[in-house]
Amino acid sequence: MNRKRPYNPQREPRPFTSWRLLLPVFIATSLSAFAAPPPGQLLAAQCAQCHGTNGVAVSGFESIAGKKADDLYKGLLEMSQRRPENIMDLQARAFTPAQLRLIANYLATLPVAAGETLDN
Amino acid sequence: MNSDRRNFLKLAGLAAAGWAFPRPVSAATTAPHVLVIGGGFGGATVAKYLKLWGGNIDVTLIDRSSSHYACILSNLVITGAIPMDRIKLGYANLQSKRGVNFVQGEALAVDPVAREVTVNVGGTHYAYSYDKLVLSPGVEFTPPAGNYNADLTPHAWKAGPQTLLLKQQLSAMTKSQTFVLTIPKSPYRCPPGPYERACSVADYLTRKKRGARIIVLDANASIQAEPVNFGNAFRGIYKNVLSYIPNATILGVDSQAKSVTTSQGVFTGAVVNIIPTHRAGQIVTDAGLANDPTGRWALVDPLSYASKVSPDIHILGDSQGTGQPKSGHMANSQAKVCADAIIRAFNGEAPDPAPVTSSACFSPITSSKAAWLTASFQYDPVTKAMKRVEASFAEAAQPTSDGMQQMYQWADNIFADSFS
Are A37 and B53 in contact (CB < 8 Å)? Predict the structure, then answer.
């Protein structure tokens, strides 16, 4: 890793050089090839603690990647509105209906877990 | 510093000196660098998601240990229900699958002007430069008055050698002895955790050391999380083995004598499990970033977890002072908001204006049944703070064996979502 250099406690504190002011310009340019994060990506990542990174669970809980957006949305909306019984009914209540729609649409774009077939 | 960057700086210097700024040819090959200090759930997750979502970003993760022991499930290591290896999480997957640079070293000091962190790597001090810095160091303890010594009266509130020490002490108890557990004033790491530990120890004593007792000394006025499930257990199945004493502020600890003096009296045990008062990790305090009114936690913008003192430094997990609960699940949740905001910033964009964070956990109440707790938070643009969604906040109606099964499944998934 060449980001580090030996520490020299004797060295003078570095002045606030003007190139730092240019850093945002440089960074914005260097990443300009990247598109804005897809809508729903960040919200859907809050499912991953139980349902796995990119919606593919490693154990137990259902994988949610690549399912039909309308089915996911209907399911989430129902969970958020019925009398709460399990932890998912509470988790669904964390989001507004519009956010649930973004989550469902985003999850639908993700590749289905290996070895799984869509049942819808 | 690599040669691309050096060339760029030379160009930038010329530009600053009055030269026309040339098209940044070298910039296309020079990725911005994010330095992450602390390889727990917050640090590991932010490093992973910066690579997963950010593409052309160099990410270096620094931790003083070669692997992380999760506090999640660690109460079950103490009672011998699961082995220590079950909570051991390495950094190999973050390196091989995600391209994170991992460095084992101790971060010593932050220089926000030079944008450098001094790190002790194997006895040599290095300065690591950054474009954005993420501090996720967990908590520091404020030692109680007296001759407090964690090697004699363990906290076991950072998983690792302390976990095994408390396990050994519990295992060595006789059937006539007492286990004393102290709970610090909120906020502390994992609100249900101490009550979960009380239940796990009470269950263990009931099964293995019948006649032994546990005394729970809570500095708070009441049970801080899952009051129904823990309250029912304390008053019900554990009523003959467990005494719960609220409003017990610690005045002093004698670790040699295994004795703790509180506002509710003096208590002595064969095992005295002192969980001291918490504050932000040392590096956060040393960098002058623990700037909330108590001086214990770091004030950050919850849209990005950027420090309110130094906006290129992000602080997440247990050290941040947004009022959200301190837990591994929450740190993971905040890390994703932080990673998304850093990537947007590199792209010249504002953070997502409406992030959601969530916290879920499963607490064993007996050796076969667990309860759960969940709370989620939405950004409130009026107060500019995270606000709990009251409809999302609840605990299980009762502990179940399904809950126990889900606890292990949740652990598997959050371990993988954070560390691989």
Answer: yes
